[in-house]
Specification:
The structure is a homodimer. Chain A has an eleven-stranded mixed sheet, sandwiched between helices. Chain A is globular, with a radius of gyration of 20 Å. In chain A, α3 crosses α5, α4 packs parallel to α5 and α6 packs across α7. Chain A is about 45% helix and about 15% strand. In chain A, α7 links the parallel β7 and β8. With about 325 residues, chain A is of the alpha/beta class. Chains A, B: This is Phosphate acyltransferase. Chains A, B: It comes from Candidatus Avimonoglobus intestinipullorum.
Chain lengths: ~325, ~325
């Protein structure tokens, strides 16, 4: 198996992707392609041990920054690292790709270069959220706004297959994000989606509310990308505010610092729960090949987690299963 | 000034509203009308000191429960406590009303009995969120789904006036909840709303993201009620999950229990920050008289805070200011 990594994307690039890629050749038995500026990658790579037979560099000398309009940049910069990585993936020169760079550019690469799966009208970004009952999948987390009912149904199907295959969750419970639990609650979109989800071949548990997100009451949360983005960023923002508060609790004076010694283990656990980096990257579901978006702030450890995830994504045939499920059911096909 | 209280609404009714009402007659110099079952209220009232000249009971023998369809129940149960309270308010037999009961029933009472302000197309529920920079207003927090641009603009105007008058915030910063900060980001609704907000006579700071909610980067957050409800409940759910975690940190063993002694003061502060009850009730803005929804789980202290809030709501002429602002600007009028 060969995994293609955009070595130039992310806050800690190229260090984090290069270190993680080098480690993957030694520990995971996978081949790695690092895409980006050859001299920069080689200089970084010199710091780590890696399996020479399993690692290659493909040169790409452009980079798409956060200030560019993503779709336009992907079309214009044929030699941007993320675009080259996408092209290699499309041409079968690798089995999956991973980028920690600009989210919009990766989405555009997925849509314009890798291409949509047959029957999927809008691919979606799916993010794992750390909850009280383990990681849960929020889909769509921001790729699509102004969705239609069929989109939310397809998100539910794709998310269910991902959670079953990659996270080993049997019959993942699918919740439809709404503003009330009863069947009649919701806006026009969720009211139209509800009956379709009942016939979509997923384990639909009905409407869920914001409370259910962090309580982990659904394994897959399906929603419009506008709502998903708001949820994701609200949770991230609250997590960072509260982490600061809890830290502040202990730094107040000598006595509180002594107190922190007593609860050090628990604090570490708490910090781990609040740290999205433990949970790997966000798969882009609905495109023809496995594409994973790693968090922009990924360090080498987080990037390595994302590579493990990409490997399982490929091994468990997520995409073939998605295409099979969507192709077989009239109610959820859209083309 | 006379404040009408639905004495039968909320998890701790009639105890909490009755105790808070009795206290208000002694400490706030306001008159109180308690609406509900007379014998039940009298029995509860016997436990507290109150100013007899300032307190009256109006009998209402029906109650609307959480299991009823709100608008239907408000129409059918002419003698429900919340409906009677609304009628007294409409007839000028009080200056403001407060209920801790069924949210839908209070909204329906506001719309059907108290009535919309001239020019306001959809009244909204506005909730104060505890953030890192003090309480901020989320509007609409759940009264309206499938909003139009004009609704979001009116929410921004009403929320700004409320924050200025009742929370003494000078030129409240208005943020438009979106999935990205740049002007071009958003869904169809927010893209249409953006230019209108620039001409609405409020201190519009542009799009904000979920991260900004708990960081407190806007004083007024305007959004569709579906999105507002999801934000509010996500924050509440995450707050309760994390409070449990932090508590669990300290209850693990003898050593961690000792640790908790060192940080007791800070922990109390943290708990206070996570406790929405400190922040009073949620005003229903856009109706002709002051209507406040207290949190269902309000104790007597929270109910008393809501009475203080109702008093300031009346004293600072929030409603006249809203009607004046909306009436004077063509861009935000809708009738």
């Amino acid at each position: 198996m060969k995994i293609i990594i955009d070595a130039m994307g992310g806050d800690h690039a190229p260090a984090a992707p290069v270190e993680a890629g080098a480690r993957a050749t030694r520990e995971l038995g996978v081949d790695i392609v690092l895409v980006g500026k050859r001299d920069v990658i080689e200089r970084e790579l010199a710091k780590y041990q890696f399996d020479k037979n399993r690692l290659e560099i493909v040169h790409a000398d452009e980079v798409i920054t956060n200030h560019e309009e993503p779709a336009k940049a992907v079309r214009a910069k044929k030699n941007a690292s993320v675009v080259v990585a996408g092209r290699l993936l499309k041409e079968g020169k690798g089995d999956a790709m991973l980028s920690m760079g600009n989210t919009g550019a990766l989405l555009a690469t997925g849509l314009l270069i890798v291409g949509r799966s047959k029957g999927v009208s809008r691919p979606a970004l799916a993010t794992l959220l750390p909850t009280d009952k383990g990681p849960k999948l929020l889909i769509d987390a921001g790729a699509n706004t102004n969705c239609k009912d069929i989109n939310l149904v397809q998100f539910a199907v794709m998310g269910s297959i991902y959670m079953k295959n990659v996270l080993d969750i049997d019959r993942p419970r699918v919740g439809l994000m709404s503003n009330g639990e009863e069947e009649g609650k919701g806006d026009a979109l969720t009211k139209e989606t509800y009956p379709l989800l009942q016939r979509a071949g997923v384990n639909f548990i009905g409407n869920i509310e914001g409370r259910d997100v962090m309580e982990g009451n659904a394994d897959v949360i399906t929603c419009d990308g506008f709502v998903g983005n708001v949820i994701l960023k609200t949770v991230e923002g609250m997590g960072s505010v509260i982490s600061k508060k809890v830290k502040g609790l202990f730094l107040k004076n000598m006595f509180t610092k002594i107190g922190s010694l007593f609860v050090a283990g628990g604090l570490k656990e708490f910090k781990k729960m609040m740290d999205y980096r433990e949970y790997g990257g966000a798969p882009l579901l609905g495109v023809k090949k496995p594409v994973i978006k790693g968090h922009g702030s990924s360090d080498a450890k987080a990037a390595f987690s994302a590579i493990i995830q990409a490997k399982k994504f490929v091994e468990t045939n997520v995409i073939q299963n998605i295409e099979g499920h969507i192709g077989s059911m009239e109610v959820i096909k859209d083309e």
